[in-house]
Amino acid sequence: MSDFPRRLPDGSYVEEPFRPFSAANITRACVAILLLGFLALCIRLAQVDPEALVNGLPRLLNWAAKAWPPLLIDLDAFALRGLETVAIATVGTVVATLLAFPLSVFIARNVTPSPALSLPVRWAVNAFRGIDTVVFALLFVAAVGLGPFAGVLGMIVHSMGVIAKLNAEAIETLPSAPLEAAALSGANRTKIVTYAMLPAVLPNLASVSLYVWEANVRTSTILGIVGAGGIGIEIKAAIDLLDFPKLFTLSVIVLIMVTAIDQFSAWLRRRLV
Amino acid sequence: MHSLLIETVTKRYGTTLALDDVSFVVDPGEFVALLGPSGAGKSTLFRCVTRLVAPDAGVVRVLGRDMSALGGQELRLARRDVGLIFQQFNLIGRLSAMDNVLAGRMGHASTLRVMLRQFTRVDRQLALAALDRVGLLERAGQRADSLSGGQQQRVAIARVLAQQARLLLADEPVSSLDPQSAENVLGILRNIARETGIAVVCALHQVDLARRYADRVVALRGGRKLLDVSVNAFDQNAFRELYGAHPG
Which of A58, A161, A254, B81 could form a disulfide with A129 if both were Cys (CB 3.0 to 4.6 A apart)? Predict the structure, then answer.
């Protein structure tokens, strides 16, 4: 225990004097310098070049000017592509949610049936989560052919990893006492999980899936670029042909769609919790 | 001037009458125990005093100021004079005991100083004296969440002392403490009232603690004031009337 703070005979107090070169402060300074050095290295590796941005800006503005008026034919075809985008995300998220639930129970530290087996399962979940939907979608395009189904399959694999991980974290934050009380009634693991754990964690699980659904709607707008369905196909075609009025229309459709889904999902989540 | 004056205060939530025509006063240096079963209106009363809710009828005066007539800056200044002690302490766990006590100076210090956590020497001296007053000077640098429950409640008391509050409202301050810590905390509150003239209103569930530490007992039941008596007059009959059963 340090000698500070201390009461002086006159009734005032002295605190520990400020020592700029104390071990703790030197450590802090070293960490700060290391972090700044790392950031500087990253800026170099990312080839950050403000001059290129300045030179490129007029070109961007020129394109923006050309985008007006937006393309207003084929709107029904674009809308259909938009719906396809939402459909990919919805099917992908629903199936991923169903597959992820048993995985999340398996890897949550407080309810896992087998701590030893949960480790390799956790690695698998991290692999699904670590590789992006677009990469999986490329694989599935090669396996099942072009089209939205390849996107759905890619989305299922990646989202399953994300949802399992987030679900497991939600389960792990549960207070242990109610689960212990349930166990002391003589219930087996399945009974405890379904009767004591699920009611407590269900709003969180639903919230996780809704978040992932929102993110998946955004992701599926670019799946078309790798041939896996949705409005991205049209976006890629518009960019390849430098068709800016069409790109403008498509961007507005994406924006409306994503905003509507985000609002709807946020509204659902508020009602759940 | 009374430290706290409650006059015919009524507060209704929907169809339930949370406070029904309640009146009493608390004078400087008095330790008043507020008794009553759960749902009797104790918390609502505190919320009316701090103007977190406005009473439907009646007047609340803190040090002579009508709280419902105040707003904005005036209300903030009036609230500085009222210190709150909570059942769950409500400290900021990751900050040190000293930084938590300095939080009591937030109403006095400039926004910039608070943001940079650079309090004046005067503020720091006040905070250290407050920590010393509750016997935790040597714990000043320790993280609040590493302190025991009793110590955390004493830090919370030091916080309202640093705030230089002149009326303390304690909402079941010892309900989550062990008996020894409870005695300690109530003893500190009583001594503060006696020695500094701060008025203390303390909601309690433990009647024996009220008998031993309070000067006066105000009892609420179903939103109505049932009793306002000196602690010596709070006998078996009064207890039965309040809780509808024998003590112990």
Answer: A161
